[in-house]
Amino acid sequence: MRRAILFLASLGAVVPLPSRAAVTANGDNGFVIESGVDIPADAASVYALIADPARWWSGAHTYSGSAANLRIDPRAGGCFCETLPAVGGKAAGSIEHGRVIYAVPGQALRIGGALGPLQTEGVVGTLDLAIKPADKGVHVTLTYVVGGYMRMAPDKLAPLVDQVLSEQLSRLKQAAEKSGQRKEG
């Protein structure tokens, strides 16, 4: 786990972060991360993009090494899952990163789950992606609340998780902008 955390921390140094990213609460048993970006697109398009993580999530932050193996079924009870491809004749596998607990198209997608290296800890996490109208499109706020038992101190782990999730939010914005440019051109 330590190696995974060091790798996650090193990636945060090379990716531009959203305009607002912060660990907003930290305690002995958990933490809260909040990040936000403005995206020049309509709410329905951004929601559809969020539900298609293969288009924006970093493959470096998957178990398979490829975001193409990620999927979200954007309905209550739907899976945020990853398929592990078969290797060397061994059977393919899968990972449940989280379970959709709230889905309102164009407004919010909420997923319950301990992401990444948090899966091996005794924690629960809630990832909330809220979409609100903004001046030239929408504002997306990512909030991740984690609580429970962690072998690594939450104050050490929270900034690393913040870097990784902030990177994903930046990638969401970039994918939306690229998608918007294709529609205009």
From TrEMBL:
Keywords: Signal. Residues 1-21 form the signal peptide. Gene3D superfamilies: 3.30.530.20. It comes from the Bacteria. This is Polyketide cyclase.
